[in-house]
Amino acid sequence: MEILEFAGKTHDESRQGEAYNPIVKDTTAYQKHFYIESYGCAMNFADSEVVASILNAEGFGATRNQEEADLVLINTCSIREKAEQTVRKRLTEFRSLKKKRPGMLVGVLGCMAERLKSKWLEEEKLVDLVVGPDAYRSLPSLIEEAETGQKAVNVLLSRDETYGDIAPIRLDSNGVCAFVSIMRGCNNMCSFCVVPFTRGRERSRDAHSILEEVTQLFAAGYREVTLLGQNVDSYYWIDEQNDDTVTFAKLLEKVAQVSPLLRVRFSTSHPKDITDEVLYTMARYDNICKYIHLPVQSGSNRILQLMNRTYTREWYIGRVNRIREILPGCGLSTDMISGFCTETEEDHQDTYSLMEYCKYDLAYMYYYSERPGTLAERRYEDDVPEEVKKRRLQEIIALHRIHSLESMQRDVNRSFQVLIEGNSKKSDEHWQGRTDHNKVVIFPKEQYELKKGDYVMVNIDSCTAGTLLGKVDSSRPVLR
Hints:
With 480 residues, this protein is an alpha/beta fold. Helix content is 32%, strand content 23%. α4 (139-147) links the parallel β6 (129-131) and β7. The two termini are 13 Å apart.
């Protein structure tokens, strides 16, 4: 098997400098340590890496052992009630730990900060500091304040904060895949969603800083980046220096040009904003992964209107058709909510039939959980009984499992280029990676001299509903 050492050109080698250092520094030299847990979306995990960088500059080293931490942080998510229950449970456990470690501080970051700050600070005395998503730069001063015994809070939202100049420190990274935040906030006022209230208005990050971060990641050995935003398709930045307007399609192209050996993914797209220009850009570059996460939330026009999704079922199907026309075989995933306010059996059947049409490769499905502060909480009654929500959810889950298995079965007896991400979770004798279409592939290491970050062709010989299984094609070269 031939191994090709492929040295791809970076986007702009003259820009490589000290601004971005994606390698976690040796923390043994630090006198203070922080421990951080992240819940929710990929954006929260990316934010935790920004926080790690800010703390690192203040003399805190990361630790995976909460028992030795001087500062314990939880980066929170408000999307579902279960996440809040989990966070509360962890904070209670940390309060017990704090009794054994006088001086240890406990803090809450992220989306729950504004709504629950008073309850957790004063009523339940679970935390010492509360920091919102746009206030991470103030962490050093808040820590100093909390060390004096004061309760430290900053949950102010910003119209321009993007953390574009901060070099994220990659926490728990496999050294192959990394998240890169390209924008913050959201202007879409979906009635079920708290994000506009917890993360503020939409603002796009400086394209130069994005490309610099991506370039440094590639130079450090990373081979896949996922561009993150609540709605990446509405990315819009004006480059006044070069008199240029950078749309998401242009940014996607610039990132793909960093190196042909760098895979590019993105999340999340909004059905009303994803353009043909983005799809054609994906088609032009082999290293832009042919996979799109396109949340629909419901298949009923009536429910979509109540959700304030600003598109119809017909519009969504038109976008799916266009994706499949321009990008044949493109992987497609979605989000689906069952049992939204006033949902009838007819509405539910509309969702069911839409799933039958789209046949998603992957779907994230939930029953509706009313979130405090949302438009839906203020406007509508959460009137669908929980047992009905759960029954409808199980019906769409069962349908999706059929589609997922069929999707996997179509790939048996085919060959795919796989980016090796590390050992299989179940066996050190097997590699795990993903295809361009975001499907997990497991294959034996055998005698081949492979490593994380290599691209290898794998012949698929079997599958489960969620995983492709195969063997290395020894006749095809390895790219690294």
